[in-house]
Structures are given as structure tokens and as C-alpha cells.
Amino acid sequence: MISALLISLVASVALPQGPAPEALNFAHFPDRLHAFVWRNWTLVPLDRMAEVVGATEEDLLTVGTSMGLPVPPNIPESQLQRTYITIIRANWHLLNYDQLLVLLGWDAAHLAYTLQEDDFLFIKLGSLKPACPPLAWAPPSEAAQARAAQIAAQVKGLFGDTAGVTPDPPLSFVEHLSAPVNGGSEETGESLFHPRFCYSYFALYGDPLIEQDPFPENYLKRLHASGVDGVWLQGVLYTLAPFPWQPDLSVKWEQRLERLCELTERAAAQGMGIYMYLNEPRTMPLSFFEQHPELRGVTEGDHAALCTSVPQVRDYIRESVARICAAAPKLAGFFTITASENLTNCWSHHRGNECPRCGTRNPGEVIAEVNASIQAGIDQAGSAARLIAWDWGWNDTWAPDAIAALPAKVSHMSVSEWSLPINRGGIESTVGEYSISAIGPGPRAQRHWKLARERGLNTLAKIQANNTWELSSVPYIPAVANVAKHVAALRDTGVTGLMLGWTLGGHPSPNLEVVYELGKKRGDGTYPSAEEAMEIVATRRFGPAAQEVVGAWTEISTAFSEFPYNGGLVYCAPLQMGPANLLWAAATGYRATMVGIPYDDLDSWRAIYPPEVFIAQLDKVAAGFDAGVRRMQDAAESLAEPEFKQAVLKEHDVTLAAYVHFKSVSNQALFVLLRNRLNTDGLSETDANALKEGIVEVLHAEKRLAEEMYHLRAKDSRLGFEATNQYFYMPLDLIEKTINCDWLLTCDWPQKSQQ
Questions:
Q1: How far apart are CA 420 and CA 403, in angstroms?
Q2: CB–CB of 509/466 below 8 Å?
Q3: 612-631: burial string, b at 16+ Cβ within 10 Å, e else
Q4: Would strands 726-727 and 721-722 be described as parallel, antiparallel, or unpaired?
Q5: Predicted local distance difference test score (pLDDT) of residue 6
Q6: H/E segment holding residue 722
Q7: pTM above threshold 0.85
Q8: 286-311: pLDDT as tens digits
């Protein structure tokens, strides 16, 4: 975990609050205590839970078993280290900060750092902390006991006596992916695309060079066998080199560089390069600038930028990068985002005019100068590391100036599908990023690549080869034909490298293998078509069932091209939570958060699409995945070879999980739509009864999907997991959804207030 000294920067900063609306009431449980016990039963050791509420372990054991829960499993420290975001999310509406700190075993500084730096976690939680009164132990009332007994009967009736305890325990996939590899690598020969790099499927984002190994040797071997030749991780400069103005921020920097050197050497031995993501310079709290006012740039809230127009700041960047390169001579490279959600340079949020220095400068010049400082550090160390400048967030009006001012050694990268026009359900729009449903490249990337090539710069495409925020809860989306067509199209653009995904998408998969095959030149000088590449991979993986699986991939891809893409939609809709997302008898009043908590915010879910179109398009997608499921099931039944049969069934289960998620989102949208219409004044009794019947039908359908997803998750610990969000749901969350549906079926409709 992140050391207390490392986070001294935020030690004196209050935990982020934002608005503090009343926390939600999970009325399907007897009370908040029962909800707390249920939510944490397989996440946190019982003694820690008891400490939070002032109870004994026996007290909480009685509460848990009264709801049909089995004896809680042993929670190893390794699980706690990889599920802290899941714990925070599960308790966001149950515990105040003080009690949450006890549950996590952290101090306030640690939590503040995590909420700020762990991939925008506080934003993902809505940039607010619900008001939660202290939760204290009290013996359950008779009414609570009676309701707990009802829940127990429901749970045991559907899930038996071992609810939540699954054959494939949480995070088992880490062990599976790190286990010795049987056989040799499939990856042979050169590729048109170098590098082909992705994020670790299970790395901890916050401080990966101190925390658990993000790249076990056998995991790297599996990636390499899938055609990947690089991996990336986050780096924060002040943790990797001495911070000249506040050295205590850099505690353990030497240890991190030693670890980085070891990782790069180990990766190189597997034919893999390690790339570091830099988003620099990091903001500092306003208190920092009381001692260093000369460094202050644009201000946002209680932080301000280190202004890169100040030579000392650029020197700090250069010297830090030089130190990293000297310590890790086999580091493959860096890539930068210079206009991210983080405020870094003064123009990073397009407000550089507020800085007295940067306001007089061309924004593109400032952006290029940040990259030039990094390249200068690489050169100072005499390193062969490559610098890739990613144009994410660059304003299109000043992107040409930034590209024109980049150093000659720098490579340029753009999101391939950005600004691609689409029509989904009659609604015209454009793609932003994170799309497999839309086949790039788009006009923005091609425009920027052309400018870069005219300067003689190498160009790379950032794609999503495995999954996207369209769906990240499966290890990969089997819309392989879309991925294949996209990569095949990139061969004609002059692009020489591929970033295979953001933090999502690092699982060895058929998708990655197809990407690699498309870059392999054949003896006659040609490259395989998208169809040929899929056939090669399918034959290798599925033997006699190859043709049927390729057919399923193609059918799935066609359906996925109907996905109602919109940037706000993929962030806000319950795509990642799927059937684990709860339903509410009355509007919660909460807004859906960025890849966080969807609530019941249908208007944010659907974005630009009318509700009926949103639902209809998701149904089209779900139908295509369902067809793929049935086709794979038939193919598996026809196979005699156990190895190929098992491989097809695993592909079947991933496809089925995707179907469940998409169909569930459609169901949830329909539920909210019907619920809200039922609250319309002046409804006739006939119309009201029809709406109530529709609600009941949806509740039964959602309950069935939650059950199905539970059984899928029980045998595959990968489902519901994404590296920077950890588990979106645990098995008990899916069981909770069935309890939620059963409780709603007993409600009188309409409901005018939250129950």
C-alpha cells in the first residue's frame, strides 16, 4: 500500500467532501447495520467490521447468518490490497469517513491521496460524500429479525447454503495468469506495428512500483504469446526522483527506481518493453505556493499548477526524467498526456490565459515544451527510451501548433476512432474514444497523423483491442471482427505502433492475437485480411470449431455496431455494473457518476438518445450477443476434443456475460421509464395497471439475469473486474440484486419517495 510518508502532501488536507446529500436507504435490508454486514461479508475481516460499529464478532456473525450467509471466508491481505476501491464504493452510502477509515485500516492522508490520485476516484464517486450518521451496533429488533429471516429463505432457496462463497474465489485470476505457462510462445516474427503495448490486467494504479508486482513473469509470457510487446504503468515524478522544493514527497524514490530497473530487465528478457505514463507536473496545494509563489500557475480549487513557463519547473522535469532513465537503462519509453482530467501545465485545462506567463504564449508551444523537457531528460541520460506524445485533450485549434513544435525524436499518438461520424437508431453523432462498436480510424486522428508525418515524426494509434467503457466488466468483448477491421484499416495510414488500450484491456485474448496477426507480413509481401486473421487465431484456439466461432464473432460484431455510443453514455450508464446495479422504487435524486455509481439516472445514462431508442439499441446489441452465445454452445456440443471444447465454452461464457450486462441495462432503463411514467398525474386506471404489469415483468427479468450472472461469476473470478475500478461487483452484490427485486415486487405502486 501507499506509504504514509509518500502521502504527506495531502496529510494536512481535509478529506474531499463536495455536497453532502442524505445517504440512500437500502430498504430491501432490515436496516443499515444489516446492509453493512451483507456488503462487507466477503470483503473485510469480521473483526475489522466489528471494530467499525462497536460490536463483537459474534454479534455480526449472528446478523450475517440470520440473512442466510455462510461462515465468512478468510480474507487474505492480498485481497484487501486489491479491493480497497470496491470496499469504498460498497460503503459510500453506509459509513462516514471516520468509520470508513477504520474499515480500511488507513489514516486520513492515505484515503485523501487515494481519492485524489487513484485514477480520479473521487470524481468516480460523484465528487461528493453522502451524509452518513455514525453506524453503531444495537441488537436487531423483532421486525429486523423477521425481515432477515425472509431474506435467508430467499437466499437459501436460490443459492443454497454457500451464498457468496464461489468455486473461483475473488482475484483467483491473478494466480491463474501468474502460473507457469505450458508450451512455447505463439508470437513469432516481426510486425508492422511496434510497439503494441497495454496495461496490466490487475496492476494497482496508485503506486505500482511499491505495491504488488504488476507484471509477474508468467503473465508477461502470456501477453507476449498473445502478440503484445509492451506494457505500461503510471509514474509520478516526485515519487521517482527528489522533489527539489519538498523532499519528503519523494520518500522511497530510490526503492521505486530499483524496482523499475528490475521490472524493465525482467520484461526485456521476455521480449517486452515497459513504458511509463507521465502526466506532469502534478499540481500542488495552495499552501505549497506560500513558500514558492514564483512557481504558481493556474489555480483550480485548493490546488495550483506548477507553471512550466518557469525554467526551474522545466529543469525539475528534465532532471527527474534523466534520473529515471539512468536508473533503468532498459526502459522502453514514456508516453504523456498533457491535457488530462488532472490539472498539470497551465494550458492542460485550456485556461492558460489565467496565468500571467502562459497567457502570453501559444498553447501548442506550452504543450510541446512539456514534452521537450521530457525528451531533454532522456537525451541527458543518453537513453534509447522513446517518448510518445499523446494528443488526448488537445484543443483541435492549437493541436497543429503543438505537433509542429514537438522535438524531432518524439512520436505522436492519437485516439484512432476520435470524431468518427456514426448513426445509431437514427441519431447522428460522433465517437470520442473507448469504442469497439465504431470502426476507425476517424478524421481527427488522420488529420493529426498527417501533420506529424509531414514533420517526419513516427505515429501511433491508441485503440481498444480488448474492451472499452462500452463494457469493461468482461476480460474482452468478443466483437473480434470490429477489432480486426479497425486494425486492418490502420495499416494504410502510416501508423507504426499501437497502444492497445487504456487501463482496461490487458487480458491475453483472441482479440490481441488477431491484432498481432494483422501486422505480420506473409512471404508474398501481403498481409492477412481481417477474416483471414480471425480464422488463423480461431483455428489455433478452437480447432474444428474455428469456422463457427468466427461466424459468432462476426454476428456479435455486427450487432455491437448498433451500440448507442456517446461519451457521456459510456461513462454514466450501468454498463459496468450490469445486473448488480440496484433498482429504486422512487427516484434517488443522485446523478450517475463517471464509471462509478449509476444510480437510477436514466437521463444521464441515455445521453443524446431518446429513452425508447436507447432501450431499442441495447436490445439489438443483446440479441446479437445472444445469437453468438447459442452458436458457440452448439459448436461446443459438437466437439469431441476436451481442450477445444473447453476453450469454446470459455468463449461462450464471456459472451454470455456480455449479453447479460447489455440486456440488464436495457431492463433497468425500461424500469426507470415505467416507474417515472407511473408517477405522472392524470393516468387512467387502465394505463396505470399496464405500467405496473410492465414493472413486475422487468423485475422478474432482472432477477433472472442477476441469478445468471452470479453463476457465471462463481466460476470465473475475472468477471466484474477492471484494474482501476477493481471489482464493480462481488457475488453477494448479485444476490443482493435478487433481494432488491423481490422486495420491489412487494411494493405498492407508485412510490412517491425513496423507500
A1: 21
A2: yes
A3: ebbbbbbbbbbbbbbbbbeb
A4: antiparallel
A5: 36
A6: strand 721-722
A7: yes
A8: 999 999 999 999 999 889 999 999 99
Exposure pattern of 531-570 as b/e (b: 16+ CB <10 Å)? ebbbbbbbeebbbebbebbbbbbbbbbebbbbbbbbbebb
Angle at CA 296, nearest 5°, toward 295 and 298? 145
Contact 371, 338 (CB under 8 A): yes
Q: Are strands 284-285 and 497-499 parallel, antiparallel or unpaired?
A: unpaired
CA distance 265 to 259: 10
Judge whether residue 459 has pLDDT over 80: yes
Residue among 496, 438, 439, 504 nearest 466 (CA): 504
**Residue 95, C-alpha cell as written in the block:** 459509513
Q: Which DSSP string do the residues of 359-409 spell out, in sequence order?
A: GGS-HHHHHHHHHHHHHHHHHHTT---EEEEE-TT--TTTHHHHHHHS-TT
Cell of 651: 468463449
Residues above pLDDT 90, as percent of the chain: 89
Give the residue from 400, 291, 281 showing the smallest Cα distance to 347: 281
CA dist 574 and 570 (Å) reads: 8
Res 302: pLDDT: 85
Domain span(s) for CATH 3.20.20.80 in the chain: 188-542
CATH 3.40.30.10 fits 188-542, yes or no: no
CA–CA gap between residue 68 and residue 59 (Å, rounded): 15
Question: How high is the pLDDT of residue 3?
Answer: 38
What gap in Å lies between CA 79 and CA 43, rounded to an integer?
8
Residue 205 — pLDDT band, cuts 50, 70, 90? confident
Distance of alpha carbon 457 from alpha carbon 571, whole angstroms: 33
Single out the residue of 24, 26, 150, 28 nearest to residue 745, CA to CA.
Answer: 28
Residue 496, number of CB atoms within 10 A of its CB: 18
pLDDT tens for 147-161 read 999 999 999 999 999
Give buried/exposed letters for 122-135 (b at 16+ CB in 10 A, else e): bbbbbbbbbebeeb
If phi > 0 it is left, if psi is from -120 to 50 it is alpha, else beta; for residue 252 that is left
- The H or E element spanning position 421 is strand 421-424
State the pLDDT at residue 186.
Answer: 52
Rounded to whole angstroms, the Cα distance separating 335 from 199 reads 13
